[in-house]
Amino acid sequence: MNKAVKRSKKAALVLMVPATGFFLASCSTEEPVPSAVYKNAEECAAFYNPPESCKAEFAKAEALHQQVAPKYQTQAECEADFGAGNCPAPAAPVPGQQQASSGGGFFMPMMMGFLAGQMLNKSSSAKQYVPTQPLYKSKDDLSTFRTATNQPVARQTGPVSVMPSRMQVAPGKMASRGGFGAQAQRRSDQQSASSGG
Q: Would you tell me which of 40, 92, 95, 177 could form a disulfide with 80, CB atoms 3.0–4.6 Å apart?
């Protein structure tokens, strides 16, 4: 009988560990920050934002696009992740980054929109900062705007709340098929499986 009591206490402890992790994860101090997703400066202004602010934020996203977009050695690799016609001629090489073997620039996906973070969260604290940045759409998940680091942001344009820690920008890296698009597809498959679809 004594062994049975010890066994049940051990089982209770084992079952409590995952639950404790779940509660700790849900007690995060980070809160969503208001931002917005737009295809271009004109769409931003149509949402009753000042046109000058929209143009400035779109320009920031365009400039950042050259630095943060995924980079591919060939157009075929880029189009495998982003679709035919969505990877224009090579961009100029970014200083300090490895050049493509052809000696030219890299192939990068076209910017499909931008996250207007700075325009809408100026009053937020430094810990809750969301930078304005370019957004992309993967061939494997055309319905979702994603950051250059493949974080899903929104399925449509307009106001959105985002977690600042997931929206930070990083320099673009060399990618190959199995990178951006495959990750999006894998997430989509996992969501379908968990929802029974």
A: 177
